[in-house]
Amino acid sequence: MSVNARSSMTLMRALLLAALLCPISARAAQFRLLKDYPVNPSPTSIVTGDFDRDGISDLVVDGCGDKDCATTGVVIVLFGRGDGTFRHGGQFVAGPEGTVVDQITSGDLNGDRVLDVVAVNNAINIFGTVSVLLGDGSGGFGAPVSYPVGGAVPIWPAIADFDGDGNPDMAVSLAGSADAVSVLLGKGDGTFRPAIVYPVGTSPQGITTGDVNGDGNIDIVSADECGEDPACRQGAVSVLLGNGDGTFQPHISTVEGLFPLQVELADFNEDGHLDVAVANPCGTDLTCVSNGGVGILLGNGDGTFQPVVNFPATGRGTVRLGLGTRSTSALVATTSVPSAPTTNFARSREGDEPPARCHAPADEMDLTCRHGHPGGVPYFGMPFLWLLPPNTIALKR
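and the corresponding C-alpha cells:
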C-alpha cells in the first residue's frame, strides 16, 4: 500500500492508555495500546461522555458522511462497554446538506440531563453554521438545528453560561472576514438567540472559557493565529471579559508566539489564578521546521497575563493539547497516522522536585520521563498537559 493510500485510510485510534504519571524518581510510565476503531474518513475532533446513560463513558467523533466524503458530515457514536473497549453505535447527520464537520463539543443544552452535541459546519462558497444535535438518551441524536454565526468560517465551539441564567450558551470562534467570537445565548430548551459578534485578533482558532479575573463572570479566551500582526508572524491570546449578562468587554490581546492554535485554562502554578496554555505548532522557530511546543502565560488574576514562557515539545507541529489531573488514567486519540509521537509534561506536588518531562516516541507507547526545568518555571502537575502532533486529538478519561 502506498504512503498516499495509507494516509487516506482514516482510523479512529481510540488509544485507551493505562497511564502511570511520572513520579519524582522519573521512572518510565507505561502505556498500552488496546484497540483501533475504524470510522469514516477525516475525523477531526472527539468528545467523551455517557450519551446513553448507562453509567459508562462513550465516544462521539466527527467525520465524513461516507467513505468518499461525498455526503454531509456526521457524528459517529462508539458505546463504552465498561472494560476500556467500545462498540460501534450509529452515525447521525451533523449539519446542513453538503457541509463538513470541523469541530464538536457536548453538553446538556435543554436541561433534560441528556448530553447533546454542538457541531461546527463549513463548506466551500457558503457561510458556515453551528448545529445543535439533541441527544435522545439512548446514544442517538435528533436532526441538526443550525444557526448562523455572523461570519464565514466558524472554527471552534465552546459551551458555558455567560449570562448567569442557568442555561447553557454557546461561543464560536470565527476566522475569515469576521475575526471574532460569536456568542449565542441559550433559551434553556436547546434553542438559541441570534448571534452577537465580538472582535478579537486575526484568525482566531481554539477558544475556551473560564473566570480569568475573579469577578464570578465567565470570560472567553481565544488563540489568535495572527494576533494583531498584519504579517501574521506574531500570534496572540485574546481575552473577552464577561459582564455577567451575556455581553463582553473589548478584547485584551497578549502576544503569544507563532501561529497559536488552541488554548486551555488551568491554575498551573497553584496561586489561585487561571493561567493559559497554548498549542504552538512551530514552537519558537520562525521558520516552522523545528519542534512545536506549548506556551504558558501565567495569570495575574485581573484578566491580564504575564509574558509567555515557551516549552519545546519533542515532535513537530503541536496542534492540540489536553488537560489532565493526577487521577487521569487514559488518553483517547483520533488520528489518520499509523503511529504518532505524543509528549506529556507533568510534575509531582511533593517537595521541591523539578517538573518531569515525558515523551512517547513514534514507534512505541511507553512514556519515558526525565526531569525538566528547575522549580523557578511554571509547574506542570495539577493539572498536567498532553501535547499532540497533527492528526491527533487527546482527551482525558
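(Above: one complete record from the training split.) The longest helix spans residues 3-8.
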